[in-house]
Amino acid sequence: MSRKSVEAIIFDYDGLLVDTENFWFEACRQVCSIYGVQITEEHRLDLMRSGLSAYLVESFFLPDSSDAIHSKIHAVFHQLTGGVIDLMPGVKPALKALDRHYPLAIGTGARTSLVQEDLSRLPLLDYFKVIVGSDQVARGKPEPDIYLRVAELLGTEPSFCVVFEDSPKGVQAAKAAGMLCIAVPNRYLKGIDYSQADRVINNLGQVSLQLLRQL
Predict the structure, then answer these.
(1) In angstroms, what CA-CA distances link 196 with 3, 55, 84, 126?
(2) Which one of 20, 101, 142, 161 has the fewest beta carbons within 10 angstroms of its own beta carbon?
(3) Per-residue pLDDT reduced to its tens digit, 10-33
(4) What is the CATH T-level fold of the domain 21-81, as seen in this structure?
(5) Could you tell me how far CA 130 lies from the centroid of its own chain?
(6) Which of 3.40.50.1000, 3.30.450.40, 3.90.1640.30, 3.50.30.20 would CATH assign to domain 3-19+86-213?
(7) Which residues are catalytic?
(8) In this predicted model, what pLDDT tens digit does every residue of 178-210 receive, in sequence order?
């Protein structure tokens, strides 16, 4: 795909734009402790590969619904962060460089309203034409629904979209949607198989128009 045929850029959110993965892990750990379940570092990769609440309910037979666990995790997460989160390396330069040439969007497993609130505080909300969270679709990642919905709202064919993702299930979702995908593994996901991705880079500071031309 040449640069001219790239029409939109889509970003994942947690672990790619914002440094929140450790907070989510700690929130899961605290919620599990309520049920007498202990999770350790050995469970981190499985949590990040799967939906947090679904993984916990299915793996540890928690006596609550996935939605109930999801709500508890979110409550603890916001207690831990106090509404203050850091950006991942290279985010601002990447957004500034790409915003001049392409519409930018977010496709995330988080709830849309929470992402909008975070971006307003950072403040980065004005960079994004479209934000689609898991609350807007029937199926989350690794199914393609989130990314297909983003493309629909942008009015862009999926094949003309480039996705930046940090997780294997996100890469799988992007490819299932028929999009190009650049993997950006965070520090907890080094050494994971990203062979489905069209390119792997170390951080968003490496993003450039030249990178997009080479896809």
Answers:
(1) 21, 23, 33, 31
(2) 101
(3) 999 999 999 998 898 899 999 999
(4) DNA polymerase; domain 1 (1.10.150)
(5) 14
(6) 3.40.50.1000
(7) 12
(8) 999 999 998 877 778 899 999 999 999 999 999
